[in-house]
Amino acid sequence: MATQNKTDIGLIGLAVMGENLALNMESRGWSVSVYNRTVPGVEEGVVERFINGRAKGKHIEGFTDIEAFVESIALPRKIMMMVRAGSPVDELMEQLFPYLSPGDILIDGGNSNYEDTNRRVKLAESKGFLFVGAGVSGGEEGALNGASIMPGGSEKAWEEVKPILQSIAAQAPDGTPCCQWVGPAGSGHFVKMIHNGIEYGDMQLIAEAYWVMKELLDMTNEEMASVFTRWNEGKLRSYLIEITGNILRHKDKTGAYLIDKILDAAGQKGTGKWSVINAMELGMPLGLIATAVFERSLSARKELREAAARQYQCRHSMAVYNKQDTEKEIFSALYASKLVSYAQGFAVLQRASDTFGWNLDLASIARMWRGGCIIRSVFLNDIAAAFEAKEKPKHLLLAPYFEEEIKGLLSGWKNLVAQAMREELPVPAFSSALNYFYSLVSADLPANLVQAQRDYFGAHTFERKDELRGVFFHENWTGHGGDTKSGTYNV
Ligand code: NBP
């Protein structure tokens, strides 16, 4: 606890996340100093409103002067920034530096790009301070009652910030805090980025399950809500499945189902896109999340889709489906595609860990996501167990437990995708996952032809099946090409 009337921690940024995190900290026994910038034209009196409102009577002190704010915090200072990602974090750091003491710790809890965090850790350390990039997931509710927090950066800071961060984190069902040290540099924000990418994937998959039930089986909102509620009692048990049931049941003031009135144009704030860009940079397939991001982009082009729909007049047959059987197939497609998505996401984390020397503990990350965050689910236990096995799987889908699961789901999964394609009903994430799976389990792929084409037109060379790996050949395909090869490198 703080001494000489100094507070335990400072928090900057009193928008929805900052306010709730400050209250969460205070409720766990920490005294908190809060600060929000005051800029003419932007909402004024933010600090005053909070101090006289939700923070009234609590161990929370408000400041509008940054120097006084810093001065109010006990050494070594811990200052958490919950502001918009990007330049605001850099601006704030520059404003804070003059008032900090050696060993003070800055924590960026926003959705910052991990490369920015790499840079900020170095900058802060070069000035004698410590910097933690901590992804926070759980939205408003999590911020107030327990979030999943993924801290990385200056490791020396961990012992200092651990008691506070773990106290405000959610607890997994076995009581472990959903906040563990992730690794150096921007690794915490990288892990949070992949978490968000997986969230995009899960949401798209659930939306496809909903769409097949609605469009092929002609189910009512109440019927679909009951299916999601039932699924939430089994292997798919998760926050997103749970809220989907609630959303489908929700009626607006007029007594009508709100879901039917919401425009089908999805927004996005960038973390899904970043996941895909970074997977590409690392040379790793992340097709399911990419599909989810692209589907949001296509959904947003509502007018174009309306025009195309008028032109093509695609129609579902009015075939009568056995609801129970088809529902089982939808379950199979959803669960199996989700496994593919997590397998792809964790493979990207492993590659990032190897490339950047982060030494990520994938089991610990899976466990951290079991509570507080948007993708929390029971099957993260199985993922953690797979990574903790004596013989570490080369890929999540090769772990014996998941092999059995996929084998049991495959028939329903492929039937559902095939049926949806015949019915001209889009299920891009279910089919992307299925195609990835078929490619993964194909010892032979037509990439020999791709290599031949590359060599034919650009002398890009190829390896041969009858020679050692790593030895590259060029063929004079036309008889009039030369022997000069292009360099053999991958980007
Ligand atoms: P916002 O992302 O909307 O950020 C608003 C806060 O940033 C306000 O306090 C604002 O001050 C401050 N700010 C801005 Br904008 N520019 C600033 C600057 N140049 N210097 C200082 N402060 C500045 O709020 P949020 O939704 O609470 O999110 C905070 C962070 O947490 C973001 O990085 C977000 O991505 C991340 N996050 C959000 C959620 C969520 O569910 N909302 C979940 C997980 C993580 P002002 O009041 O003066 O404008």
Describe the model.
There is one protein chain. The chain has a 7-stranded mixed beta sheet, with helices on both faces. It has 3 domains: 7-180, NAD(P)-binding Rossmann-like Domain (Rossmann fold), CATH 3.40.50.720; 191-439, N-(1-d-carboxylethyl)-l-norvaline Dehydrogenase, domain 2; 444-490, 6-Phosphogluconate Dehydrogenase, domain 3 (Single alpha-helices involved in coiled-coils or other helix-helix interfaces). The model has no long low-confidence stretch (mean pLDDT 96). It is α/β, with parallel strands linked by helices. The chain is built from 19 helices and 7 strands. Bound molecules: nicotinamide 8-bromo-adenine dinucleotide phosphate (NBP). Residues 13-18, 36-37, 39, 42-43, 46, 82-85, 88, 91-92, 110-111, 136-137, 139 line the site of nicotinamide 8-bromo-adenine dinucleotide phosphate (NBP).
What's the number of domains?
3
Number of helices: 19
Biggest sheet descriptor = 7 strands, mixed
Order of H and E elements? EHEHEHEHEHEHEHHHHHHHHHHHHH
Task: Indicate the CATH topology of the largest domain.
Answer: N-(1-d-carboxylethyl)-l-norvaline Dehydrogenase, domain 2
Task: Write down the overall mean pLDDT.
Answer: 96
Helix content: 40-55%
Shape: globular
Catalytic activity: 6-phospho-D-gluconate + NADP(+) = D-ribulose 5-phosphate + CO2 + NADPH
EC number: 1.1.1.44
Binding site for substrate: 111, 137-139, 195-196, 200, 269, 296, 454, 460
Protein name: 6-phosphogluconate dehydrogenase, decarboxylating
